[in-house]
Amino acid sequence: MVRRNTLLTHYLFPSMNQFFHNMKYFFSPENVSFQAEDAFKNRQQIADELSIDIQRMVFPHQVHSANVCCIGEESAGCGVMDDDTSVHESDGLLTDVKGLCLVIQTADCIPVLLSDEVAGVVGAIHAGWRGTVAGVVRRAIEIMIKRYHCKPENIHAITGPGIGPCCFETSEDIANQIGREFVRNYSNEGRPMVNLPLANVSQMLAMGLKHANIVVSGICTCCDPIWPSYRRDKTNRRLASAIML
After folding, report:
1. pLDDT tens digits, residue range 178-196?
2. Which residue has the higher pLDDT, 31 or 60?
3. What does residue 94 show for φ and ψ, rounded to 5 degrees?
4. Most buried of 137, 157, 165, 219, CB within 10 angstroms?
5. What is the pTM of this model?
6. What is the DSSP track for 53-65?
7. Residue 7: what pLDDT?
8. Alpha carbon distance 245, 243 (integer Å)
9. Angle at 71 between CA 17 and CA 157, to 5 degrees
10. Parallel, antiparallel or unpaired: strands 239-244 and 101-106
11. At 203, is the secondary structure helix, strand, or coil?
12. Is 141 helix (H, G, I), strand (E, B) or coil?
């Protein structure tokens, strides 16, 4: 069940409270793209709501890849004021530094938040269909295990608002790349309808995460007009998904 916090204008999933109780996370439909006039105001509002300095936020320059960066204190403020200072060509951020807020921007792609409270590590991943095919979520978990010594059974994950199988109509070629097992239906034109969140959950399970430690939001950005959707509106708006220790 998703719950909107009306005071903080962001969305939380109560079922994750048992996992993320020592950290802050959110999914916000407020536009944070620098292609919009209100982007910085919305970024500042998010920082205020989290009671952090905006310069504690970190944004990557997303390129639909499997590139995942481990960041430290030196990355604080990257991408906050302009895209030129974003973490270079990365679709995933991981950190064990308290107080750094990792932020992913999406408008139909699947945002994935990862947490290991035992090891003290969090991650924010941008998984569009290209990143999913490249294995960006799998790569992030590999790094959590190898670099931060996380155990798969201690890693918890949530997939945030993104395009659902109800709306992700694509080509046979793209469906084949993602995996035929994730085709859930066919459109009236006979094109595959693919479950992109499930494709990412499959990568998590293959890496040893437990079913019980994974939550799928079930929110389709294309269906629900409160969320930015490129497919629906060809919009420059981007929602923010973030997590911090």
Report:
1. 999 999 899 989 999 999 9
2. 60
3. -130, 145
4. 137
5. 0.92
6. -GGGEE-B---SS
7. 33
8. 7
9. 25
10. antiparallel
11. helix
12. helix
Helix intervals (H) in 37-87: 39-49
Q: What amino acid is encoded at 90 in this protein?
A: S
- pLDDT value of residue 23: 73
From residue 124, how far is each of 160, 183, 186, 192 by CA, in Å? Answer: 11, 26, 31, 28
**Closest by alpha carbon to 43, among 26, 56, 31?**
31
Place of tokens 């992109």: 196
Which tokens belong to 39? 């982007």
Q: What's the Cα-to-Cα distance from 224 to each of 162, 218, 220, 228, rounded to whole Å?
A: 10, 11, 6, 9
Main-chain phi, psi angles of 164, to 5 degrees = -100, 175
Give the mean pLDDT of 88-97: 97
Query: From CA 66, how far away is CA 134, in angstroms rounded?
Result: 5
Burial of residue 227, with CB atoms counted within 10 A of its CB: 0-12 exposed, 13-18 middle, 19 or more buried: buried
Q: Name the average pLDDT for the chain.
A: 90
